[in-house]
C-alpha cells in the first residue's frame, strides 16, 4: 500500500514544499531535517548515479533501482519522476506496477516523445494530446492502491504550444483521471496564476533553479494557488558549490579539513553504522 500522507496533505489544502533528492547521502540529511515527502528527481538521480544528462538515456530498470533504493532509505514518502513511462502504453503499465511495488507513493509522467529531454532544456518534442490521455488512463487503471497511489500528469507544452496549449492539455489530463496536474517550465508568476486558477485539481510547481521558471518565496507560491512545490535541483546545486570550494581550497591551499564540516561520527550513525557496531558487540568472537 502507498503511504497516504501525500493524499492527506493535498486534501488538507495547506501548501507544502518537497525537496529533490539526488542520492542517498542527500536522503540521509533530508531524514535528519524531517520531510513528510521527498521527490525522486530524474535529472539529478541520473547525474549522480551515472554522470549522464536527463535525456532518456537511463533505462526503466536503472531508474526503478534508484527509486526503490530511495524509497528504502528515505523516511519521507516518495514522489517519483517516471519520465514518459519509458515507452508506449504497455511500458506505462509496467512502470506503474514496478514503481508501486518498489514503495513509491506517487508517480509522475510527462507528455514528451521518448526519449525525453529535461523540461528546462531545448529541443523538447511532444506526443499528441490524445496519446498522453491514453497513457494517463492506463496509469490510473494499472495502480493497485486506487486511493493512495497518485498519478501526476505533466505537460511540457509551454515552449511549443504556449499557455493555450498548456491549459488545453492540462484540462484533458485532468479529465483522464490524473490526481495532480503539472505545468512545466512556465516563465512568469502571471502564467503560474493562470494555470492554478483554471483547475480544481491540485497543481504543482517545479522550482528548478536556473530553469525557465522564477523561484519566488514559498509563501508567494501559496498565494498563487499551488498545492505544493518541488525543488529538484536545490540540494544538488548547493552541493556542487560546496564541493567546488572545498576541492579548490584543497588544490590551491592544501586545506584538507575546512570549517563547518558535517560530523563524521553523526553521519556514520545516520547511515547505519550504529547498528553494525551493535551487531559486532553482540556477535564478535574474542
From TrEMBL:
InterPro entries assigned: ICL/PEPM, Pyrv/PenolPyrv_kinase-like_dom, Pyrv_kinase-like_dom_sf
Looking up PANTHER family in the UniProt record yields: CARBOXYVINYL-CARBOXYPHOSPHONATE PHOSPHORYLMUTASE, CHLOROPLASTIC, PHOSPHOENOLPYRUVATE CARBOXYLASE
**Protein name (database record):** Oxaloacetate decarboxylase
Origin organism of this chain?
Answer: Ponticaulis profundi
Amino acid at each position: 500500500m502507498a503511504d497516504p500522507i501525500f493524499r492527506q496533505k493535498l486534501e488538507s489544502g495547506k501548501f507544502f514544499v518537497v525537496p529533490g533528492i539526488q542520492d542517498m547521502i542527500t536522503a540521509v540529511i533530508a531524514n535528519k531535517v524531517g520531510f513528510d515527502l521527498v521527490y525522486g528527481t530524474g535529472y539529478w538521480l541520473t547525474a549522480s548515479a551515472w554522470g549522464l544528462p536527463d535525456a532518456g538515456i537511463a533505462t526503466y530498470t536503472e531508474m526503478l533501482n534508484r527509486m526503490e533504493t530511495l524509497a528504502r532509505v528515505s523516511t519521507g514518502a516518495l514522489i517519483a519522476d517516471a519520465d514518459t513511462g519509458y515507452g508506449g502504453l504497455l511500458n506505462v503499465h509496467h512502470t506503474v506496477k514496478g514503481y508501486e511495488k518498489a514503495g513509491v507513493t506517487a508517480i509522475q509522467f510527462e507528455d514528451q516523445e521518448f526519449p525525453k529531454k529535461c523540461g528546462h532544456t531545448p529541443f523538447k518534442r511532444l506526443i499528441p494530446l490524445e496519446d498522453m490521455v491514453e497513457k494517463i488512463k492506463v496509469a490510473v487503471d494499472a495502480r493497485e492502491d486506487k486511493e493512495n497511489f497518485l498519478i501526476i500528469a505533466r505537460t511540457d507544452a509551454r515552449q511549443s504550444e504556449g499557455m493555450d496549449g498548456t491549459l488545453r492539455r492540462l484540462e484533458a489530463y485532468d479529465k483522464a483521471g490524473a490526481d495532480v496536474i503539472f505545468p512545466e517550465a512556465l516563465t512568469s508568476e502571471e502564467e503560474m496564476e493562470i494555470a492554478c486558477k483554471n483547475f480544481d485539481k491540485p497543481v504543482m510547481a517545479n522550482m528548478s533553479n536556473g530553469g525557465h521558471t522564477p523561484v519566488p518565496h514559498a509563501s508567494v507560491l501559496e498565494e498563487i494557488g499551488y498545492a505544493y512545490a518541488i525543488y529538484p535541483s536545490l540540494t544538488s546545486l548547493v552541493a556542487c558549490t560546496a564541493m567546488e570550494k572545498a576541492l579548490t581550497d584543497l588544490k590551491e591551499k592544501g586545506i584538507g579539513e575546512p570549517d563547518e564540516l558535517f560530523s563524521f561520527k553523526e553521519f556514520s550513525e545516520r547511515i547505519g553504522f550504529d547498528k553494525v557496531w551493535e551487531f559486532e558487540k553482540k556477535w564478535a568472537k574474542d
